[in-house]
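explain this:
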Amino acid sequence: MTDPTRLPEVVWLARHAETADPTRFHGAESDVGLGEHGKRQALAAAEWFAGLGPTVVVSSAMVRAHDTAAAIAAVCGVPHHVEPHLHERRVGPLSGKSRAEADPIWDETIRRWLAGDTAYAYPGMESFDELKARTVPAFERVVKSYPGGRVLIVCHGVVCKVLLVSLLEGKGPADWVSIGRVPNLAVSQLVPCGPKWRAERLLEVPPPVLAVNAAHAGAGGDAKTEA
């Protein structure tokens, strides 16, 4: 059983803000940065997190996650560190594709994972099993580094999903759809629960980010991809 005294008090797991090209798939192969809307989202999230008192922010090294995390860490006045193995899923031939092009492949992937075939992956892409083998140890390295801390981890939509269904008590790959979607800056608040974790908040977008999104939608902003 995990020793709770060697873990953070709380871990927030969040997806990065919106990219500069939000209607296309951006896997590990595409190090796209944030768009102007994404930068506004990150600042809105930063003000919200400042009220929660994180003690450290950790992100993947990919620009979209790194810049989101850096904005939050700066406003909160806390260190920002990188865990490179929390990078986005390798999507191979889907990188840069539109939803219309990629959705049939992604939908079949999810269908197979829900049916228990978690080793399945379209050629050139990471399977659920490969993602779990990479990201769960990375998460564990992070949390064991900050006993008693209040840790914000900023990573990627599919990575958040894999971690949640792998780490939460009573969850598994069959919960991929029912656990909910992962819009930009969706936040899950996790606390230790024996050998697993319990979600006190699950894939919730902070109200200030929702307000920024509403203004963007009113101005005719593009629809974005979600996990």
The chain has one domain: 4-218. The mean pLDDT is 94.
